[in-house]
Amino acid sequence: MDVLHTLYHEFVGFFNVDGVVKLFRTGNYQSLLTWDGITAAIGPFIPFLLVIEIIRAAVYKRFKIEDYRVPFLIFVFNRFIGRFISLAMVALCIGFFSKYAIFTATNTWYWFIYGYIVWEFGHFLYHYWGHKVRLFWCLHSQHHTPETMNLSVTYAHFFLEGAYADVIRTTVCILLGVNPFMLGVIMFIDGTWGAFIHVGENVIKDARFGFIGRLILTPSHHRVHHARNPLYMDTNFCNLLNIWDRVFKTYEPERRDITIEYGISRKVNMKNFFDVYFGEFYYLFKDVVKAPGLKNKLLYIVMPPGWSHTGEHKTATIVKREYREQEAASQQTATIQPAYEQEKAIC
């Protein structure tokens, strides 16, 4: 019975239906007019959308168990060892940094917009460093290893990544005046949207969302972010508002002439949980061990993935620059060739 009780609570926890169950048990539907009631009602949206996504994939004979196996194992693993760490770090940062805030915003709509822009800045910093600092990439790479896009990918994270991310995002927000209540509202909205943008082609084929995609980051933008195509590497770091990607020149829309290839640049054994979850730590350890001198060992930890002490760098910046140069050269050749053929025909 204890096992069944535990499984029941794990099921309820995954689908976030505890609030809905409580609502039906008490019959207090007036609570839907409160913030707690709203969050309880919206909480199950992403998990149930994941179920719909799986059902549609099965109906159209596109379901592959390997697309969901590793994200599911990561979710289970993280539930046991990292469940409360992130919340604890948020509370710690709020308690420590509140006294250093430059001011405290009030709960008005214009300060809410300000707060969301500040939150996105904090999210951009965490996410950018997660791609540009090798150690932080080891905490983030698990989220990028899946070679298809579906809602289960939103659960594929290293158990410490949430804590590292929330330390940065919460600290930035509190120091810049976002009050704790507003921060909680923003985190809920951002978490829900951040999960939704992983929706796969089995539910939404073309996820550009028309003119809305000019204002916010859509699932299409996030599919680009998860791509290993040279042009798409290290782009679209924001979550909802694309303001900071545009400011820092990391914004990249999805092109119709480029098919997205999901995953990371190295070959990953997607059937091996340890390769997916700990693989980047293993390769970082190997690079640090073989690096000559303390300086090079430290540089492997803080420099971007692909950096090498030999100078033969394969960072995303270099790979993308080489791709753009090749693309520009190809376009120039394509422009010159017809003109040459036309001139040859006249002669």
From TrEMBL:
The keyword Transcription regulation does not apply. One of its GO terms (molecular function) is glyceryl-ether monooxygenase activity. Residues 113-250 form the Fatty acid hydroxylase domain. InterPro entries: Fatty_acid_hydroxylase (IPR006694), Sterol_desaturase/TMEM195 (IPR051689). GO terms for biological process: lipid biosynthetic process; membrane lipid metabolic process. Its main location: membrane. Pfam families: FA_hydroxylase. The chain crosses the membrane at residues 38-59, 80-103, 109-129. It comes from the Bacteria. It is found in: Endomembrane system. Keywords: Lipid metabolism, Membrane, Oxidoreductase, Transmembrane, Transmembrane helix. It is a multi-pass membrane protein. One of its GO terms (cellular component) is endomembrane system. PANTHER family: ALKYLGLYCEROL MONOOXYGENASE (PTHR21624:SF1), STEROL DESATURASE-RELATED PROTEIN (PTHR21624). This is Sterol desaturase family protein. The lineage of its organism: Bacteria, Pseudomonadati, Bacteroidota, Chitinophagia, Chitinophagales.
